[in-house]
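Quarterly update from the structural biology core.
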Amino acid sequence: MSSPETASERTVRHAFGNVLAFFVLLLIGVLAFSIRLFSVIKYESVIHEFDPYFNYRVTQFLTKNGIYDFWNWFDDRTWYPLGRVIGGTVYPGLTLTAGTLWWVLHSLNIPLSVETVCVFTAPTFSAFASWATYLLTKEVKGPGAGLAAATLLGMVPSYISRSVAGSYDNEAVAIFALIFTFFLYIKTLNTGSLFYATLNAISYFYMVCSWGGYTFIINLIPIHVLLCIVTGRYSSRLYIAYAPLVVLGTLLAALVPVVGFNAVMTSEHFASFLVFIILHVVALVYYIKGILSPRMFKVAVTLVLSIGLAVCCAVISILIAVVASSPTKGWSGRSLSLLDPTYASKYIPIIASVSEHQPPAWPSYFMDINVLAFLVPAGIIACFLPLSDASSFAVLYIVTSVYFSGVMVRLMLVLAPAACIMSGIALSEAFDALTGSIKFQLLGFSTENSQVGVGDASPDNAPAQKNAVKSDASENTLKDRTSRKNKKKEKERGKEEQGGQSSLQSQIKMRLQVLPLESSIIGVFLLIMLGAFYVVHCVWAAAEAYSAPSIVLTSHSQNGLHVFDDFREAYAWLRHNTEVDDKVASWWDYGYQTTAMANRTVIVDNNTWNNTHIATVGTAMSSPEKAAWEIFNSLDVKYVLVVFGGLVGYPSDDINKFLWMVRIGGGVFPHIKEPDYLRDGQYRIDSQATPTMLNCLMYKLSYYRFVDADGKGFDRVRQTEIGKKHFKLTHFEEVFTTHHWMVRIYKLKPPKNRIRGKAKKSKSKASSISSSKKSTKIKKNPWL
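Predicted structure, tokenized:
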């Protein structure tokens, strides 16, 4: 057996390990940042998707006008004629973060534009999220598992999909805030430090500022606290970890304008208050138990529990009364759709119409977390060996996130950190077991045979060896009781013997856990291959699947790469060929981009806060041309924008979204009925389509002159010929169609011209009739 390690050697090894871990974390941060730059390398430095354009526009306003004007900004270019108060309806965390970064860089004389800062904010915070994952997993299972989890999170496709360069959305900073808040909670739970508890409340405040998903934190942590209380794990550390978070965190959350009194008035927060009361009742019981005798304690517990139950019943009654007064029982629509996956499709079609609110398909799990799906169960088992407060929180986190990701595909983003933590724990434990077996067999056998002997290390000889050690220690104790020096020698000898005994026991335990050498080497090789497969998949996902910006599309064919830049072409036309105060109507998906890139007023946008306004636009698109013209004219609309993919095969066009326009419009205006647009329950645009479908505005604006483009009117998305090919527009005129026919812009014909034309005709007819009458009269009686 090798000689025991001295204290100085342990200190050197510990310091070297910390330095090595620091450099590894640095490399993980570089990896997390660089793997998200494919979108910039392959395309250009541009903002992606739809929501990020609103965030970019708000950040521009913040850096130009300052924070006070930002809080009081009333935007009259959105939701015409209602407008929108930006400061009170937006989560300001992302905007303030990017604005602060821009201000710091300019203070250091680094003249980066606001757009550049916005493009690279998400990759920067992905590196921070990887480091936060290391800290959280280290508190759960040690630094080895932390490094593995941080590496996995830096490359996981689910997180890459929302944090590539240019993806300037709330999740860019919110995932870091989520993980860091969980780390500070576990850190406080392990140390019982009020300092970390205060930092935890501040981190929770930053999460509230950044994303509406903060309700996941304020419900998951109370569930864990309640679990610890029920399983008998209450301690003062648990109280310090939770109570300041609820009090200070709720006060800080109420300071965010978009949250306000919702922090204490909505059902999403009631669980934290109920657990807060239960925690104080339990704390009072433990306090009384420490100062009273057992008999008095029983009496006091009865009294405390009675009062506590009465208070809880009163609080619950008040909560039930408050909740019952709300038609949604105090829950938001998105929260209800998470608790009841069928709720949105039944009652709020505007939520169900969003593609990222749909349940994910099973293959998407393999696409977004890949091999982590197979490592997560092993990580859960490792958390129970042994089970601690921190590991129980990790298990609770993965279980809840798996459920929510199964309800809404967008929440795969919340699952990604939990899956990486569990997979990191599994990989770390597996590597420890396999490399420990290899090390023990290659280095431990020779020294053990020479000093201890194979037979002495067997489990059968262990009790005898323990008895021998005990007898020797007792004899030495009897001989050396005569002087203090002998007592000191006895203590030193006893420590050495105990150290030898413990090392012997650990050696025996290690031998029982040793795997065969060949199996250990094969296991390490398979784990390395698994990691290599994960890296290849993540790089492919980052380069191909998630790097393309939705505003610039590409396709590969035999002739090479084709770039479709129709969206920016259409917005540039609107910006340069329309008046500044012109209003543009489109489906709400394109509202943010139209306002940010075309600088024109829109009727609805991606905020979707007013269902009636969106239903009005959906009704106009579902109505015949004349009725749609009247609706748009009442809203002072001058241009209508539609997205059409039938020519180039772009599937996310307005024809594919049309049934959602019908459902949303019909939810407010009953004369719009979905069956009127279906033929025997099927959605068709060919010759079998219903007359209502063939005559609605969306059909006409999409397929107007389409037969002139390809000669036969074949829709490449729906894979069929359209039913109505030759028709004319009477109330709208085409003013612009992009190069690939993906965006089409129409202008409302002015009503005055048509009314005047009719008036002139009627006047001319009336004048001709009167003149003829007069002429006849004059001929008959010229003197009159």
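Residues 412-451 form the longest helix (40 residues).
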